[in-house]
TrEMBL record:
Ranges where the record places region Disordered: 1-56, 185-204
Occurrences of domain GmrSD restriction endonucleases C-terminal (ranges): 106-241
Secretion signal span: none
Protein name per the record: Lipoprotein
Lipoprotein listed as a keyword: yes
Top-level division of the source organism's lineage: Bacteria
InterPro entries assigned to the protein according to its UniProt record, in alphabetical order: GmrSD_C
Keywords: Lipoprotein
Lineage of the organism: Bacteria, Bacillati, Actinomycetota, Actinomycetes, Kitasatosporales
Species the sequence originates in: Streptomyces azureus
Length: 245
């Protein structure tokens, strides 16, 4: 999804963020993880989904990863425009980005990566017309068709406006296009839930599905480390908290 037009207020030093209006905890219709991979075992984002991190060993690995993330204050949003990260969803990101320049745009690449029971446009092996999605953010199973396109959106785990405020404003165009189209930073999810996120960091917004919050924090950290982007101190504290015992 393209980042919402206005920034959401941060919640530094406060309690864990609200669930964004969606179901949470035991209220989530449990659908399992589908084919989802543990993000600790999927460092390039080419495997589908975000499987829950549940074992004591994996939570320790997750905290060790998050601890490596640098922190700083969030800078101004001045000058941010979605187009400064390339048009959505381009297939011409730098060649070292997985799935780039394969003849299929990033949105369809991600639908193919995470969807099940894929149905394509006649004569195409790229344009997805329908699929079944195990949405990690809500725990729901979504039966999606292209006629209801916005029901599934592609989330930038580390939002582009957040990236801009944490240092991407000084990057080259190629590097901004890379983070905008990198499957490590992209996950298809329930559209309404994604819209509630805006450009929030983990201190202000976490997926409604509580069992996935450590995995989400790991993925946020993986993007941060790959692109050498810091997060706020409040965001890092919240990420570590999600992977506690």
């Amino acid at each position: 999804m393209m980042v919402a037009g206005s920034a959401l207020a941060g919640c530094e030093g406060l309690a864990p963020p609200a669930d964004g209006g969606g179901p949470s905890g035991s209220g989530v219709p449990t659908a399992g993880d589908g084919r989802a991979a543990n993000p600790l075992d999927n460092p390039d984002g080419t495997k589908p989904g975000l499987a829950a991190i549940t074992s004591t060993e994996d939570k320790a690995r997750a905290r060790a990863l998050i601890e490596k993330v640098e922190t700083k204050g969030r800078g101004p949003r001045t000058g941010y425009e979605r187009d400064k990260f390339g048009y959505a969803w381009m297939d011409s990101a730098p060649a070292d980005v997985p799935f780039a320049r394969n003849g299929c745009d990033s949105r369809n690449d991600l639908l193919k990566r995470d969807g099940e029971d894929l149905r394509f446009r006649s004569g195409s092996d790229c344009v997805v017309m329908a699929l079944t999605l195990h949405d990690p953010y809500t725990g729901k199973v979504i039966e999606w068709t292209k006629s209801r396109a916005t029901e599934v959106q592609i989330d930038h785990v580390m939002p582009l406006s957040y990236d801009w405020q944490m240092g991407a404003s000084r990057w080259t165009e190629d590097k901004r296009e890379a983070i905008a189209n990198d499957p490590l930073n992209l996950v298809p999810v329930d559209g309404r839930t994604n819209s509630s996120k805006g450009d929030s960091g983990p201190a202000s917004w976490l997926p409604p599905n509580k069992r996935i919050r450590c995995a989400y924090s790991v993925r946020f950290a993986q993007v941060s480390l790959k692109y050498e982007l810091p997060v706020t101190a409040a965001d890092k504290r919240m990420m570590l908290e999600q992977c506690g015992d």
